[in-house]
Write a structure and sequence with these properties.
By secondary structure, the chain is of the alpha/beta class. The protein is built from 16 helices and 20 strands. The protein folds into three domains: 1-76 and 177-267, P-loop containing nucleotide triphosphate hydrolases (Rossmann fold), CATH 3.40.50.300; 105-174, no CATH class; 279-528, Rossmann fold. A hairpin with a 2-residue loop joins strand 9 and strand 10 (244-250). The protein is globular, with a radius of gyration of 24 Å.
């Protein structure tokens, strides 16, 4: 395919602050091309995309005479990713001044302020009058396209995962940058939002397939952890594995390669799953004495909510919710972005203070009757976006200590680990595919690998309740299948009851026969289904 070079990378290295991340990279992005960048967690894809948007350095290798790097987009690049969203929430929490604010609540930057800053190219000072540009945002086509008119005046840290992703996409569009990098953009989005984004991507990407298309509209590079929901407009694929390019060429040839790989994997699927299940059971038995809670009554009511209402001002999030969780009844939680799913889970975990103004019982005791947050969390395993953000704030913690903190219900580890705990952590890391990496820092691994580690952390103590808020965010196909197998095994053990939020039908587990469905401004509905 002939075309004009937009980005040229010949015999270059990608350099981080302390080490070389990728070596001897060769790739050209030309007019008439629409690229997908893909690869397993930790394989190099994330480093490459960071380098393209200027977060890491692309350096010509002096060992090659033809080594060159050129990028016509220069610094006119914007990235939308799970990691970018997490970093944004982390920044908002670091700047929280609730203790100095009358009423004790600092909502931080709103979506309106965040978008206005992209238009102005500068920060909007706190407590200053909004610029005129911010007052007109409802009329912007980018705001309408991303469907965020209703949440413009909500604090960024109070947005759901899907809402923050759509806000970041809107900011990228409003910024008028010439190259947009969308990394795993469909993660955490509901069906409607995914359709909007797919339509948007195809509209833009089809324009860039024209070899003579103007550079006045933005180009897009799509990054994905797995080959799923790939827009039709993609015609080229760049794959990274083991910190190297493992495929570079037409999408049609890549799909043939994937089919061959999948056929080989399918032959060994049942054997590998059986071996994995045996490994899980063996580790659980060997570490049984470290489990913090044992619940013997099979008929025990674990959670009970009576006429629960939650909201802020005129925004009603949960309305007249009556629901209970019995031991062994695994629930699928679903509903569109912003419908109250995360708020519902935070009432259980104790991260939403309105739990004390409602009739909510956990493990037989009403919240606010004297139990501490640690009394509650000792009986819970949690995987959530909020937890992931909190762990990024102690990102020097080793993988070994992250796993051990699951036994202690802490964020990070603040007392020396015992030899027994270290041995248990090593076994769980090996089970998850992290053998020999126990001393690596949590912050040094990819977003998807971080999520896999947090799932292992939640599972190690076999808690009475395992809360999973979009657990497979950022996971490649290999990690995703292993984690789903692990969750199914944990559910079938009889010791742990699952509450599972997901927008992806392919991630629904066979054991999840109860559904709690949320819709904005409506009383949640629940039902039991047969599989």
């Amino acid at each position: 395919m002939s075309g004009h070079n937009l980005i040229t990378i010949n015999n270059c290295n990608v350099e981080g602050s302390k080490k070389t991340a990728l070596q001897n990279i060769n790739w050209n992005f030309k007019t008439g091309e629409s690229w997908l960048v893909i690869g397993p967690n930790g394989g190099g894809k994330a480093d490459f995309l960071k380098a393209i948007c200027g977060q890491m350095n692309i350096v010509p290798d002096s060992a090659y005479s033809d080594s060159i790097y050129s990028n016509i987009f220069d610094d006119s690049v914007e990235i939308v990713s799970l990691e970018r969203a997490a970093a944004l929430i982390e920044e908002e929490r670091n700047n929280d001044e609730s203790e100095y604010v009358e009423g004790g609540v600092d909502i931080g930057r709103t979506g309106r302020v965040f978008l206005a800053e992209a238009i102005l190219g500068a920060k909007v000072k706190k407590n200053r009058a909004l610029p005129d540009e911010a007052k007109k945002l409802e009329a912007y086509p980018e705001v309408k396209l991303c469907g965020i008119e209703r949440i413009l005046d909500r604090g960024l840290k109070y947005m759901s995962t899907g809402e923050i992703r759509r806000t970041l996409l809107c900011r990228a569009l409003i910024s008028k940058k010439k190259l947009l990098i969308l990394s795993d953009p469909f993660a955490g989005l509901d069906v409607e939002s995914r359709k909007i984004l797919l339509d948007f991507f195809d509209t833009i990407a089809k324009k860039q397939l024209d070899d003579n298309a103007s550079l006045d509209f933005p180009r897009i590079i799509l990054g994905m952890e797995r080959y799923h929901e790939i827009p039709d407009a993609i015609n080229m694929v760049l794959e990274f594995s083991d910190k190297k390019i493992s495929y570079c060429g037409p999408k049609s040839d890549y799909e043939k390669l994937l089919n061959d790989r999948n056929s080989l994997k399918e032959k060994d699927r049942e054997k590998n799953r059986a071996e994995f299940e045996n490994d899980v059971e063996k580790i659980k038995q060997e570490t049984f004495f470290l489990h913090t809670e044992k619940i013997a009554d099979d008929k025990e009511v674990l959670i009970e909510m009576n006429n629960v209402n939650v909201g802020w001002g005129d925004n009603r999030v949960l309305i007249d919710l009556n629901w209970k969780l019995n031991k062994g009844e695994h629930w699928l939680i679903r509903g569109p972005n912003g419908s109250g799913k995360t708020t519902f889970l935070e009432l259980i975990t104790g991260d939403n203070m309105q739990v004390f103004s409602n009739d909510i019982k956990l493990f037989g005791s009403r919240r606010g009757s004297g139990e501490t947050i640690w009394d509650i969390k000792r009986k819970l395993g949690i995987v959530s976006y909020r937890l992931h953000v909190e762990y990024r704030m102690v990102n020097s913690t080793t993988l070994e200590n992250v796993i051990i903190s699951g036994f202690r219900d802490s964020i990070g580890l603040y007392e020396a680990a015992t030899d027994v705990e270290k041995a248990a952590a090593k076994k769980w890391l090996q089970l998850g595919g992290f053998a020999g990496r126990e001393k690596e820092a949590f912050g040094s691994i990819s977003y998807g690998e971080q999520r896999a580690i947090l799932i292992l952390r939640a599972a190690v103590k076999c808690p009475p309740i395992l809360i999973l808020d979009e657990p497979c965010h950022g996971l490649d196909e290999g990690f995703r299948q292993k984690i789903l197998d692990l969750l199914e095994i944990v559910a079938n053990s009889g010791t742990t009851t699952l509450l599972h939020v997901t927008h992806d039908p392919s991630e629904v587990l066979e054991c999840e026969k109860n559904i709690l469905e949320f819709h904005p401004k409506e009383t949640p509905m629940y039902k039991i289904i047969c599989r």
